[in-house]
Amino acid sequence: MADGFCSPLDITQIEKNFAAIDPAMTAAEAAVEANRCLYCYDAPCIHACPTQIDVPTFIKKIATGNLTGSARTIFDANPIGATCARVCPVEVLCEGACVEKTLLQKPIEIGRLQRYATDDAIKNGKQLFTAAEANGKSVGIIGSGPAGLSCAMYLARLGYAVTIYDKNEKPGGLNTYGMAEYKMTQAESLAEIAQIEGLGVQFRTSTVVVKEIQQPDQSRGGAENEAESNVRKSTPVSIRELRETHDAIFLASGLGKTNRLNIEGEELKGVIDALAFIEQVKTRDWKAVPLGRNVVVIGAGNTAIDAVTQAKRLGAERVTLVYRRTEKDAPAYEYEMDLAKKDGIEFLWQTVPTAIGGHGCVMSLRVKGPGGGEYKIPCDLLIRAIGQRKTWDFFTEVCEVAIDEKGRVIVNELMQTSDPQIFAGGDCVNGGAEAVDAAQMGKRAAAGIHFQLFGKRVEFAGMVSKQ
Ligand code: SF4
């Protein structure tokens, strides 16, 4: 494993490798594709979208040249519509439900059309919504990822003073730090967030919410800190201060660090977490990006696929994905898996890691294969991608809210936790799902907070009341 960056590829080639795999549509392509849409009555694509974007309406607006109106329809139902246009698993959501998807026909390219309209609005600095007159209430949001951003936008539109606290240097959470580079860049995430800032939402980044303010903890080890490179310079703020400053708090802190393998050799240099790896690639600090000739990724979810494909694009000679179950059991979406296959990734199914070998740095991974026999794989960079831990302590000891047996924050239909002042949404509630699911939870939480503070029901676009 290299201490610094020494890829066989030059930076220009790497940047080319990281170029979006789905390039933006041209105006002509968008017009042709928009005109293919049948504008179905009770369109299945709307119901398949967790934020229920009015897909036929936004597509119709593209067809008639009303790009601003189209973007407004999208962002009205999903404040991170530009992100979702890039990272949503459209194959199993809107496009999977499209009536045009037949044996002979491909579905309408809803994701790329959505990107076309939202990019136009962002590129041209269109402020599509305005904040309502101040209503005198204030909300503090912990976490500026998909759920936090979504909640902030709806609350600002209702006249709330909103402050988002985030441990990272830049806002956006997973949108900014966790999406594979060939899907979305940091610049694209930050440009979308600028729209939300334009509504007067305040961001306090590099700020970590703690129970009590005390001296920084010096005791945490190197391996843990590697995954927290953006958190090191954080300023603490106490949960008491948040409670006193804000009428309501929205907890959207996501999940914690990647689970550990709990096998010998895990502390060796060159054993890293998938999210830390993706984050380092995104910051473009090439000297800090770990690189291996023989890269092994453990896990078979979408984050594992992001890690293997990025390792390959960085110039690794051999990239192997190791998964304890069969290919059929792999949680990654089929099209993500296809991408990895096209990139020449090797797969070891029904294979369990048993020990990591090396002297100071990782040199090999010992695994038990399907037949039970053990053998070693050469490996100079080992990436863990076996799911993220829930931050139980943060929920129960800092925020003092109830969690279920799996460590997820428990909420009622208003997205309110066991503490009436604290609402929650996103991965910390559902245990980890898509950005679009988190955006919808942020929307529902904004409505729940408004009901709690003003006793008024509000229905945002793409939110059908059960009342
Ligand atoms: Fe258009 Fe397909 Fe949605 Fe029908 S289902 S409205 S064809 S995108």
Descriptive report:
By secondary structure, this protein is an alpha/beta fold. Helices cover about 35% and strands about 15% of the residues. Helix 9 (about 145-155) packs parallel to helix 19 and helix 14 (about 275-280) crosses helix 15 (about 300-315). About 45% of the residues are buried. Iron/sulfur cluster binds near residues 37, 38, 43, 44 and 55. The site of iron/sulfur cluster has 14 residues, from helix 3 and helix 4.
Concise synopsis of the structure shown:
36% of the residues lie in helices and 15% in strands.
What tags apply to this protein structure?
467 residues; alpha/beta; binds iron/sulfur cluster; single chain
Shape: globular
**Structural class assignment:** alpha/beta
Query: For the residues shown, what is the average pLDDT?
Result: 91
Q: What percentage of amino acids are in beta strands?
A: 5-15%
Helix content: 25-40%
Distance between the termini: 58 Å
- Low-pLDDT stretches are 219-228
User: What hetero molecules are in the model?
Assistant: iron/sulfur cluster
| Number of contiguous helices | 19
